Amino acid sequence: MTTNQQKVVLITGASSGIGEATARLLARKGIHVVLGARRTERLETLVAAIRSEGGFAEYQTLDVTSRVGFQAFVEFAQNKFGRVDVIVNNAGVMPLSKLEALKVDEWDWMIDVNIRGVLNGIAAGLPLMKRQGFGQFVNLSSIGGHAVWPTCAVYSATKFAVLAISEGLRQENSDIRVTVISPGVTESELADTITDAEAGKGMQEFRRIALPAEAIARAIAFSIDQPDDVDVNEIIVRPTASPY
Fold it and tell me: Rounded distance, CA 239 to CA 244, Å?
């Protein structure tokens, strides 16, 4: 069994929110974290903070919509540590709006980041994990991947897709663990991507009971902490007061 001190975990969307909280928590557990995001200056600050506390962290600029970029990210980690135990596909965007608003560029953006980003992570990491004979993908879906509300049609579609892709990946690979984490409303910068006034107002009300990002980080850590023969397939984490 691989101990935490030996594990190498790659995290996308690591510059803020759930990604940042997960990086900090796993590093405190002795895990080597490799952080990817577009905002390099934030990654630099986060890596410095983790190292100052005695943790092991590296970073590389990453745009998950780039298949070549994701491949380079995984190769960077492999070259640095000699292995990749877990890829946390966390990067996501959520520019909510009703379909009649026809924000088609935002639809494309969600599809590119939320679906293609996960697929790019699988394409980059799966061959390596198969060669190793072990590995784990932790893919971030959402309660929006279990239900649909007005303004959420495209976003929910992308998160339903994460569930389907993850289940297919699990069924096809008996030597690879696959976990889906579906957060309820959580403190993050996701809502900052909303440009539609009506959707933004609704989200402000919804986020009054938001969980801290650390709550989702703990769920991710739990799935990673399990023995190699235990695959936690899905965890839904909601605020206690959430009606959805």
Answer: 9
Q: Cα–Cα distances in Å, from 89 out to 123, 151, 208?
A: 12, 24, 26
Q: How far is CA 230 from CA 37, 104, 139, 188, in A?
A: 29, 41, 17, 30
Residue with tokens 């605020």: 239
Catalytic residue (choose from 145, 155, 156, 160):
155
Q: Which residue has the tokens 């993850």?
A: 166
pTM of the model: 0.92
Q: How far apart are CA 55 and CA 49, in angstroms?
A: 9
Chain segment 183-222, per-residue pLDDT in tens: 999 886 556 666 656 665 555 556 677 899 999 999 999 9
Which residues, including other chains, have CB under 8 Å from residue 147's CB and lie 6 or more apart?
A: 156, 244
155 has catalytic annotation = yes
